[in-house]
From TrEMBL:
Residues 489-839 form the PEP-utilising enzyme C-terminal domain. GO terms for molecular function: ATP binding; kinase activity; metal ion binding; pyruvate, phosphate dikinase activity. The gene is ppdK. This is Pyruvate, phosphate dikinase. Its EC number is 2.7.9.1. Belongs to the PEP-utilizing enzyme family. Catalyzes the reversible phosphorylation of pyruvate and phosphate. Substrate binds at R532, R588, E715, G736, T737, N738, D739. It comes from Roseovarius mucosus.
Amino acid sequence: MQQDDSHITLITPTAPMHTHTHGGRAKCLQRLVRLDLPVPRTVALSFEAVHRIAAGELPDMARFLAPFGAAPLLCVRPSSEDPDWGGPGAVLNIGINDTRFVELAERIGKEAASHIYLRFVQAYAIHVARLDPDVFEDVSPDPVLGLSQALKAYESEAEEEFPQDPGKQLTEVLRSMARAWEGTTARLLRQAKGAPADAGLGLVVQELALGLGQGECGSGVMQLVNGQTGARQIIGRYLSQSQGRDALSSGADAIYLTRDPRGPSLEDLAPDAFAEIRAYAELMRARLREEMQAEFTIENGKVWILDGLRVPRNGRAAVAIAVGLAEDDIISRDEALMRVEPRALNELLHRQVDPNAPRDVLARGIAASPGAATGRVVFSAAEAQAGHSRGEACILVRRETSPEDIRGMHAAVAVLTERGGMTSHAAVIGRGIGLPCVVGASEIHFQTRRKQLTMPDGRVVKAGDVITVDGTGGLVLAGETPLLEVARDDAFQTLMSWADDVRDIAVRANADTPADAEVARKFDARGIGLCRTEHMFFDTERLTVMREMIFADGSTDRAAVLERLLPMQRADLADLFRIMQGLPVCIRLFDPPLHEFLPTDRAGHLQLAEALDLPLSDVTRRVEALSEYNPMLGMRGVRLGITVPEIYDMQARAIFEATLEASREGAPVVPEIMIPLVSAKREVELVKTRVDAVAAAVRNETGRDFTYRLGVMVETPRACLRAGEFAPLVSFLSFGTNDLTQMTYGLSRDDAGRFMSEYVKQGVYPEDPFHMLDVDGVGELLKIGAERGRAANPDISLSICGEHGGNPESIAFCRDAGFTYVSCSPFRVPVARLAAAQLTV
Ligand code: PEP
Ligand code: MG
């Protein structure tokens, strides 16, 4: 069956042509034609035309070939809607046959003509006749000899003569490319890159500019920017007597474009052609409003532009390019903001594995905290600290981390754990302090006693061996791997300031320590949205006092120990207030179960018994008494505050005294106090009464006044449903989506890592809900909580402080729901600022 040719169009400045009907390459070529660039004649086949070809409906070849004049040589290239979706490789030199070979040999020489013919025979054999590339294994590198050998090899393998009819050659090439696109593997591959199931393929058929023959002939690519750094410089390669993108794959034979001490250049060899190509590249940048790579051919001195491709770039270059185009008034600032994928900023904020460097993957896990680092493997926090003090880079390897590992985490350059998911201890702390982290690497056999790791392929990594942890890609790599440095350069700062100009939802940071707060300030967070106060007690010295408090007999003893904790807490908070310079600081009252502060093994119990001067059996008994079957749903958060109220009293006092201290030096501080894990109104009433009482006492004692805001952390499903009851008692609600996700799904945030990848692989969950907010379920609870809270107290402010707060998709949700701010780990603040800005553009 023959198709009409309404879907086959000669590319002219006015031909109807769109990216969604003909693909990005066809559309770009039309733009180049409009700019009057010397583009060889090109015909575009729409998605529809290609689809019909795959179904066996072929175009009328005589009419198809008419625009190309007599005896053309052609090339066919794919044109999908998004170039990242891939497509079949280009096929060059279609139309060559025995007769044309003779003519061509007269014109450009036998060797060059043989090259052209040979290349086509091989491409046709492999892509169309689907012969094994090995059949050409013994073909001579000499093109004249090689051609006759290749033709013979084709004939004997394909059991037919090499097709001589250019129409048939073209038809078969088009058909094979069309079918390749519709194959299952190709479809799955592109769907993995985000292509819709029915993504179409266009094709462009272009008359060949010969890069082979007499005079200066060759091909190459030129771009005006470095795709790694974003620096403006002419980059590319040129290879005499070559076609297509040969210059990029030929290694040492290709030459530089600009004058270069390392060797000859196109600028020396053909200065006029060089200047002409450069001018075209500049024109493309200005008029296509993008950094483009020009693919060119020089044919006996004449320049042809075959194609323009968006320059491939990493995150750092993406920022520099967008800012550069806006500063040159080629695009607007808003457009520059839209051109950078927020997550790509991670590449600027943390060291990254160089994507172009060779890597040896040992195992995979969950990419829990971005960045990469190389170091020696250690199996305990103490060894990490010891290594750190010797100036050694250490990778802390644990089954899972616990509060006791915090100092080791600070001392390590990266963390690797067997267990855990996106909101497990290691992940949350890792993101908080900007430490690369891979968790849930359960395919590795962790033999922590023997101090070794057995990788899935049987390789063994022992303590002291060097590995690289890639927390961005979730990979464990053997040995040292080249890393790209952090690049918070001028372009980054500029883009961030443009983002802040348009953003209409604030971004705060989750910061627990003065060090976190410094990072938060550096990234221009608009305050602290969550200070997990218990994190202030993981320091070894304080941990002992904390343990004394837990072991205290009765409230008198406990009060005495709390007296000692008070100044520590007060000093930390005063520091935070000072660093944040009047920006809001939201302090969460103590949350975790007490046993988290107790050692888990016998050696630890013994140490504690010595430190507290207690019999070992007392310590063991006490630890057992506090242990819970399900600590995440046990005595934590406000439940602890209600049953052991002295702890919250101490914290409230520390907050108010620190407020007064910090207010002495600058503007009055208005602290925000947040009650965690609320599920009933009465909990809020009880805590509010005590906090108010402490405030009154401090006012009385000091004779000074201050204000504060009380809020509820909404992180149980019941708190969402009953928000209307307690909203009138408080000034803000902050959604803790880590616990809320855990409780909505009934899914342990610490154990889910074991099966999460299987669940996502089998499509049970579209994404890890601890990573990507579950808009349908958890999101509905969020909306209910927000609506009921707001209805009962119209002045209430709403926010999110779970890990989802730094996710671009969740930020859109929170903005739509009318939240005042999102709060996330300090290192994610820039990502969130950009994502928030994009929502307003
Ligand atoms: C939460 O549950 O979302 C939260 C922020 O608190 P945490 O992670 O400390 O439980
Ligand atoms: Mg929580």
